[in-house]
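Rotation project, supervised by the postdoc (A.L.). Task for the rotation student: set up a whole-complex structure prediction and record inputs and outputs verbatim in this book. Inputs entered:
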Amino acid sequence: MTVRTSLLGTALAAATLSMGALPALADGHSTAACLITKTDTNPFFVKMKEGATAKAGELGITLKSYAGKVDGDHESQVAAIETCIADGAKGILLTASDTKAIVPAVEQAREAGILVIALDTPLEPIDSADATFATDNFKAGELIGAWAAAKLGDEAANAKIGMLDLAVSQPSVGVLRDQGFLQGFGIDLGDPNKWGDETDDRIVGNDVTAGNEEGGRKAMENLLAIDPFINVVYTINEPAAAGAYEALKAVGRESDVLIVSVDGGCPGVANVKDGVIGATSQQYPLLMASLGIEAIAAWAADGTKPAPTPGLDFFDTGVNLVTDQAVDGVESIDVAEGMDRCWG
Amino acid sequence: MSDPNADQSFEAGLSGSATDVAQFEEKKGPIERFQHLLHVAPWMIPLIVLVASVIIFGIALGSKFFAPFTLTLILQQVAIVGVVGAAQSLVILTAGIDLSVGAIMVLSSVVMGQFTFRYGIPAPISILCGFGVGALCGFISGFLVARVKLPPFIVTLGMWQIILASNFLYSANETIRSQDIEANAPLLQFFGNSIRIPLPGGTAVLTYGVIVMVLLVIVLNYVLTSTAWGRHLYAVGDDPDAAELSGVKVKKMLISVYVLSGLICALAGWVLIGRIGSVSPTSGQFANIESITAVVIGGISLFGGRGSIMGMLFGALIVGVFSLGLRMVGTDPQWTYLLIGVLIIAAVAVDQWIRKVST
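Outputs recorded:
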């Protein structure tokens, strides 16, 4: 009998779902949650999924994961949110590809009573999500900027800086890291909401890398063609830094250029160890995801929403500067500790 | 016999009229002549555009652009697209299209890297395995196109997804670091080595990747114009039925083209490792579109059977010159894409115009 009713219930629920009715009926025994990432190929998101899956298993939450095909694949993410609404999920963890365009879909989910938490990438406006668990990307940039300036000492006044950014569409994560770096280095920002409008002569130029080796190499070559004497290179992430290093090696300048980066992935930290990258700001995707799942569990249990870090409009999951060449005035952890905590 | 014309005095009126055999009137003005020239040598336009764009950027940017370093840098930046474009050219000449070229390239490079580092197989054998994977991917596409008669667009659209997914599943998107490759399997980075030629105004840097791209295009150009296989390829692309009736084994021909294309993509994968130093499964996302762009701007007809692989190389170089030139001028990168879009449409419009010419 019980088997038959539950079967009937499932069939009914499936039928109501297919008619587009509210999914509350489908909610049976366990809490369901969704993880929607930009891609399922970037090790950062692979680690995020790992953290979410482990925590979900621990708390008895059913987790479904979705991802765009490539970074910037907005449509797949909207479809994923719609699927989660139809699926009767209690919460969605989202790293948005298009932080503005995703907002209507997110509102739709929240109206359906779903807790939406932005991971890693804040939505625009940031309060479109119930909460944001992220790295303070501006601070991540500031740390490497301050480190680079301290490392150069007096020479910082004559630095020639190449900026290897993410994409021409200027997603917020790229802008925050770029502007943080410049501020940390001691360069006056123009509009802090966009990169490339600074007037300081020390900046040779900005180019975009798509955050991978191939793009990093090409962008570095382009900047070297503009000025072959670049001696400080900011990179959006460590794969771009590895590509930039290859370009510098090709012209025999790898040993006299300071490369800084953000991420803290294991190959990136290994590159800090080998001196390819001078310093990198490490972030913690696994923590973001497991905290996110805990928040969904709390929301499902008694409707409490996570609170942001005091003084910020998001929950800061922390960032550390990883380098073996510590400088005065900038807190850092060494490569060994960075290796222990690296991802990917 | 009496004079047969005796009673046909009415023909007397013909005397003095034209006695030539009927023929078409030839009106070859300069435009027709140019059209005919392009029909015979479709690589002319891209060459003209290439030379013109180099001159224009040279004037605008001066010695910075005309430096040996900058000009050879453009070659380095188009090496991958040039090699993949060679594979794409072969397929497009058969009136097909290959959307999976970039995916084959990346999968081959991942196989070369992972076989060496995950299983400890000696690098030369891993590289051969990479070529094997490239050939296999090409064979599957070729078989589906030639034997199962599926349209190339659909087959390679599917293969693109399948190969890319296999690439990510197999590699777990793990990057193999440049420093590890350098220490343990430097052969993988072979095409990253370079010849440096000191010249007045700077050093010209020719990587082995650039050299292999140029050699590949020269060899393929010879094969396509001067061997039976090459002429058959054009025949199949122009009119497969006529080619079949003339004794060309069209199906075998098509399969061999896709296999060769897969092998060239694997070569591109090896060149890719040389260029970026590491083995990165996220590379080459847009190699298919970039190679089709090079082929189209290079004047190879998407309808098959006409065009020169030299044109593809010029097409790739045009894109390279515009990308770097506009970056050095300091424009927003979007202008590069806009201009390349204009070039693509212009190139196809010219192709349609040439098609109207009589041979």
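Student's summary: Chain B has a mean pLDDT of 90.
Supervisor addendum: Chain B has one domain: 43-352.
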